[in-house]
Every structure is written in C-alpha cells, then in structure tokens.
C-alpha cells in the first residue's frame, strides 16, 4: 500500500471521490456485492442468536443507512456479527427477547459516551492475543453449537455441554433419516463455501455465502427434502421496542455485566476491524473516536427497534474494499438493498433451510480461530499464545464475559511481568567488600528472585547494594530492600551501604554488639 498522501487526509470529505469518472458506478456495484454477502449472514446470525431472522436484517439496514452516513471509517461495513452470536444467545436465554433491546440501547449509549470522551483509541491498546482468544472461543462455541442446528437437534446451554454432547449427537444423527438429511444439507453448504474460492473468477462474481445458501435452498426445494426452514414473522411483528419495565431492569448487576461485555467486545471488534480495513486501501483513514460514536448511534437505534447489536464486520468490509468501493456511498446503498429485500421479498426467507445457515456459521466459526497464527505465535511469543489459549478455553468453559475479563487480567499480568526485568550482579572487590548491582526495573514481581540472591550473601562481610542503574524502583521493592539492608549484617560487621539516586535513611545495627540502633545514613551518590 502506498504511503498516505495529502489527498487521503482524514479531513478530506470522503465523498469527493464521486467527482472522478467511474467512481459512482464502482460504488453501486460494490454495494450490490456487499448486499449479497450480508444477506445470508444477517439471517444466519439472527437465527443462531435465538431471535427472529428479520431482526438480523434490521441491524444490517441500520448499519448501512444510519452508521454508513456517519463519520469514522469510510469503507468498513457494520451489521450483526458472528462474534456476538454466543453472547446474544446467552442474553436472550437469560433475560428474554424483550430485554435484548434495552441491553443494546444502553450499549449504544455507552459507546457514544466513550467516543465523546475520546476513548476510541484506547480500545486499540487491548492485547491482540485477548481479541484473538475471544474470537477463537466464540468460534469454538459457534461451531459446536451449530452442529446441533445442522442435525435439527436442540443445542445444550453451556459450551462444555455442546462439546461433550457431540458423540451422542453423531450417534443420534446416523440413526435418524431426517437428521441425516439436514446434516447432509449443512455439510454440502460448507463444502460449497470451501470450494467456491477455487472456482474460475467468472463464477466467483457471486459471493460464496449467497451461492452456498442459494444452492442448498434450490436442492432442498427441488428434491422436496424434509428439513426445517427459517421461521418468518414479518418485519413489523419482529420489531419489539423495549418497554419501561425492561429499561428499569437495566440496573441489575447481571444485566450491567452483559452490557459491559457487549460494549467491550463490540467496540474492540469494530475498531480492530477499522485498523484492518485501513491497511487495505489508500483512502481516508479512520477517526477512531468518531467511529466509536457512529457504532454507538447504530446500536442505540438497534436497541430502540429491539434488534441485534452491531459491530463493524471484517468480511463485509473486505468485500466492500475488494469490490472497488471508494466512498461511504457503497455501504449506505447496501443498507438500502437490504431494506428493499425485507419489504418486497420477506417470504423468500421462509424457504431457506436452517441447516444451510448453520453450515454458513460453522464455516464462519472456523475462520474466527486463528489457526495459522497460533503455531508461529507459540514459537516467538509463548506468553501471548498462553493468553490466547486461556481466553478461548475460559469462554468455552464459563461464558463470554468472564472469559474476556480473565484474558484481560492475564494480559496485564504478563505485561507487568515482562516489563519488570531486573538483573542482579554480585562481585567481590580486592578489599573483601561485596558489591551487589541491580539493573533494570525492580518491582514487587521480581522481589523473590532479588531476595533469594541477597539473603544468600555472607553476613560477616561489608556489602554495598548499588541501585544507581535501576530505571524504576517501586515502593514495595524499595521498602523491602531497606529492611534487608537494616537487618542483614551481623552486629560486628559494617552496615550494608546502599547507593541510589534519591537519598534514603537506613537504620542499621550498631557495631557494639547490642541491639540498640544507630542512625546510619546510607551513602547516596547522586550521579548526573
């Protein structure tokens, strides 16, 4: 990618490119491509989240027509994302569908507040390993959960039950003709998704998710297969704005925890997606605070409509860029095409097999697991690989919120450990004096190692503790070292001397043999 030119300044209007010949046509064509990619994903994410399929389209429409018009990122596309499927499913199961709108509404309000407070850039400081672990955990739960939908069976509630129940699911599927038929439709959908990128470019004009779902629908209808289809309620019936009772329930601890999880994950995924999209084009760069506000406005509108939460989605965004989009017009138009489809062809959703959508989401779940990055990461940054694995496993074993929190805590602890490197050097001078030199960052995390060396020093020899090369000395470490210097040497031996940049008083035992304490100021040699 070429360097950012003045013409691609973030202060430039993103629509100025429409004046150039051919840009309007390319944006319209790109919007159609994004629409065809988004349509099956919006429906599939909604069904997997346990909500009416129409609500997925509502979120996609808001992502195009509302968020698409707001400043932030010019080319990334927002809508319902597979990354929030597990969390939404758990929220709907625990609090009910009517409460979902209130949760999404508060999530949007928090995102707006964070954006106005200029916190957008700080979401980029979240450890990449935590985000990858989060997506991997979501992917695992999504894959194993959708295996049950592919076979027409009911999903277990917990992630571990979904995994441990797979052998029984396979046994039940093999012995049931209806389940076997549904599983075949789902596996066929996955096969199309895997093989589609290998076809000639002329065939790949149709996006793989749309082609896979269309072929599965055609085969199911053509052969009259007995499989479950998407349930259609109608757009108006599906929209359920939150009531006053739902808004009042937002004060409970459990609901607030879910809101925080929504806010953290949706914001981080959107801003990470924005950074990835920026690397794909030479157009205007993302303004992260404005993008966070835009996502908040979109989620607020979705909350008012009782729809799914939204994030920026890298699959749709990359399709938008690769299709040649140059301005936000393409993402706005993709929302318009979704609206026209929802208004004119809502019954078309009712012929889509659930197994086909489950296959699309199993494939999407597999792509959430960073298989290619795990082995190189384990070789070069073993600690980061541990953070990734622990986050993913915690999400599967517990839930999304607890897994992400554990990952963040582990990442912070690892960072603190990595930045507290200290080297302890011991040498003996010709006059018998022992000199212990510390270099690096002396923090409480390294105290066990430091004390292990210091306590092994002889108590009948003059000792000098040189801290002048320490870049950082925290309070706990400083206090502990002063106490060690106070008590270490025998009463008949010269007191431990400490060299450090700030002057510090160290009380030592007197050399007369009694326990009376004499005030001995440690030598503090200030060095330029």
At a glance:
With 528 residues, the protein is α/β, with parallel strands linked by helices.
Molecular structure report:
A hairpin with a 7-residue loop joins strand 7 and strand 8 (517-521). This protein folds into 2 domains: 15-411, no CATH class; 420-497, Transcription Regulator spoIIAA. Helix 2 packs antiparallel against helix 13 and helix 2 packs antiparallel against helix 15. It has helices spanning 23-48, 53-65, 85-95, 97-116, 128-150, 159-164, 166-174, 177-195, 208-222, 235-238, 244-248, 253-278, 288-305, 314-322, 329-344, 354-368, 371-380, 382-397, 400-418, 447-455, 475-487; strands at 77-79, 311-313, 422-428, 434-442, 463-473, 497-499, 505-509, 517-521. The protein is elongated and about 100 Å long. The model is unreliable at 1-11 and 503-528 (pLDDT under 50). It has a 4-stranded mixed sheet with strand order 3-4-5-6, with helices on one face. Strands 1-2 form a two-stranded antiparallel ribbon. The protein has a two-stranded antiparallel ribbon with strand order 7-8. It is 57% helix and 9% strand. It is α/β, with parallel strands linked by helices.
């Amino acid at each position: 990618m070429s360097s950012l030119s003045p013409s691609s300044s973030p202060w430039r209007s993103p629509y100025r490119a429409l004046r150039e010949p051919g840009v309007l046509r390319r944006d319209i064509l790109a919007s159609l491509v994004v629409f065809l990619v988004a349509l099956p994903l919006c429906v599939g994410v909604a069904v997997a989240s346990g909500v009416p399929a129409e609500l997925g389209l509502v979120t996609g429409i808001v992502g195009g027509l509302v968020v698409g018009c707001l400043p932030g990122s010019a080319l990334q596309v927002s809508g319902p994302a597979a990354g929030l499927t597990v969390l939404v499913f758990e929220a709907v199961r625990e609090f009910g569908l009517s409460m979902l709108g209130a949760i999404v509404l508060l999530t949007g309000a928090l995102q707006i507040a964070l954006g106005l407070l200029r916190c957008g850039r700080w979401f980029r400081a979240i450890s990449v390993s935590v985000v990858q672990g989060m997506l991997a955990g979501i992917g695992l739960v999504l894959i194993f959960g959708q295996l049950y939908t592919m076979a027409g069976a009911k999903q277990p509630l917990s992630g571990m039950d979904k995994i441990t129940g797979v052998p029984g699911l396979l046994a039940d599927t093999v012995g049931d003709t209806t389940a076997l038929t549904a599983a075949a439709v789902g596996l066929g959908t996955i096969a199309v998704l895997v093989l589609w990128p290998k076809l000639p470019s002329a065939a790949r004009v149709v996006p793989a998710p749309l082609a896979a779902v269309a072929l599965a629908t055609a085969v199911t209808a053509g052969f009259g297969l007995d499989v479950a289809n998407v349930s259609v309620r109608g757009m108006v019936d599906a929209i359920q704005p939150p009531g006053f009772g739902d808004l009042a329930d937002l004060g409970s601890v459990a609901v607030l925890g879910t809101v925080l999880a929504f806010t953290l994950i949706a914001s981080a995924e959107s801003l990470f997606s924005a950074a990835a999209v920026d690397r794909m084009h030479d157009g205007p760069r993302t303004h992260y605070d404005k993008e966070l506000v835009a996502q908040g406005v979109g989620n607020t509108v979705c909350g008012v409509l009782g729809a799914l939460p939204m994030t920026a989605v890298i699959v749709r965004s990359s399709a938008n860029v690769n299709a040649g989009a140059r301005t936000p017009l393409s993402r706005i138009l993709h929302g318009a095409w979704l609206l026209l489809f929802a208004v004119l062809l809502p019954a078309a959703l009712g012929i889509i097999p659930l197994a086909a959508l489950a296959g699309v989401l199993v494939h999407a779940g597999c792509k959430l697991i960073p298989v290619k990055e795990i082995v190189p990461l384990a070789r070069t940054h073993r600690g980061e690989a541990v953070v990734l694995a622990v986050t993913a496993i915690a999400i599967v074993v517990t839930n999304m919120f607890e897994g992400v929190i554990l990952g963040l805590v582990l990442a912070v602890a690892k960072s603190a450990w990595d930045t507290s490197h200290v080297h302890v050097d011991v040498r003996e001078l010709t006059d018998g004096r022992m000199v212990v030199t510390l270099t690096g960052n002396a923090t409480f995390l390294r105290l066990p190692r430091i004390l292990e060396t210091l306590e092994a020093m002889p108590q009948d020899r003059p000792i000098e503790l040189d801290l002048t090369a320490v870049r950082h000395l925290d309070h706990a470490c400083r206090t502990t070292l002063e106490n060690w210097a106070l008590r270490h040497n025998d009463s008949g031996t010269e007191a431990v001397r400490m060299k450090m940049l700030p002057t510090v008083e160290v009380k030592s035992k007197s050399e007369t043999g009694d326990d009376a304490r004499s005030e001995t100021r440690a030598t503090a040699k200030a060095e330029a």
